[in-house]
Amino acid sequence: MKVPSLQRLAWATATLVPLVLLGCARTEPPAEPVRAVKVITIGVAPLQSSQEFSGEVRARVESRLGFRVGGKITRRSAEVGQHVKAGTVLAMLDPQDYRLAAEAARAQVAAATTNRDLAAADYRRYLTLREQNFISGAELERRDATLKAAQAQVEQAQAQLASQGNQAKYTNLVADVSGVVTAVEAEPGQVVSAGTPVVRIAADGPRDVVFSVPEDKVTAIRAGSAVSVKPWASALQLTGRIREVAASADPVTRTYPVKVSLQGETQPPLGATVTVIPQSLSMAGTPVVKVPTSALRQEGQGTAVWVLDKATMTVKSQPVQVATADGNDAVIGAGLSPGMTVVSAGVHVLSPGQKVSIWQDKATSPAPVAAQAATGKVAAGGAQAATLPAKR
User: Does pTM surpass 0.90?
Assistant: First the structure.
């Protein structure tokens, strides 16, 4: 009765031992897949793009007009965008106080004139008495001095009247040039002091394009050098000359404003945004090494690309230095030389030493040889079957 139990135990042991040994065996890791990548061959190509700056069209002469006297604004007839001619009344102050001052000055002129006439009559009378030797010469000289003082008072009162009259005229803000109103900085009912800007006018005449350049580029900008101007809202291609380069940087942006005088009769409207291309900063046509931006990847603190070794079909990392951008391409300043093969797509899934294959578009890849041979055999068999006689 014990023999069957021993047989079953031996059979169970013989079954479990291979399973335990199979579980303890070391499994090999799966082979790393061979990835298909797009590649490009490094060459030298001309630089296409140029350094561009954003600018704004402004009037060469832009004036901020304000009243020459203070007071309360009672009317404003100027509106933004309105074209005004020289002599047009733009705004008015309350003139009542200045009119009263002018009336007071006019009364002072009348009083001074009366005193002058009285002094003149006394002088003529004393002159007659002196001719008759009834008075001394000193008395006549005193009357002459009185007459001259009265005449001076008349002239002073007349000058005061003229000044007050001008003050009353200054209550009208008049455009001194023809141009376009670009800003209104005060409204009716507001009390302004003398010289406070009320209306801004861009004078008719030549236009300037104003743009800013950083400190490392301003040394290459020279007065008189040519620039190309492209308005954003039209297809015009304008030319201009550098007219003025600021001697100091803007305190906020730390850039240097540059003014360009436009040439030609066709000029963009005021305030239009344009693209400025200085010819002195243009490097178009310079031979450079370029790669697509998709080939770049970040490696540590720098930029790198994958270089393909065609002998082993493996990739290795190559640090590069990016100089600038040219459209959708990056201009490489150092790290690559013509003839190298660089991975242009799929760079973020690769690792150093990984085997790769060159990707080919299925639409343009040739048909497999085996498929072509099979197709030939099928065609030949069909032709042979067509020549055999039919069996009866």
Answer: no
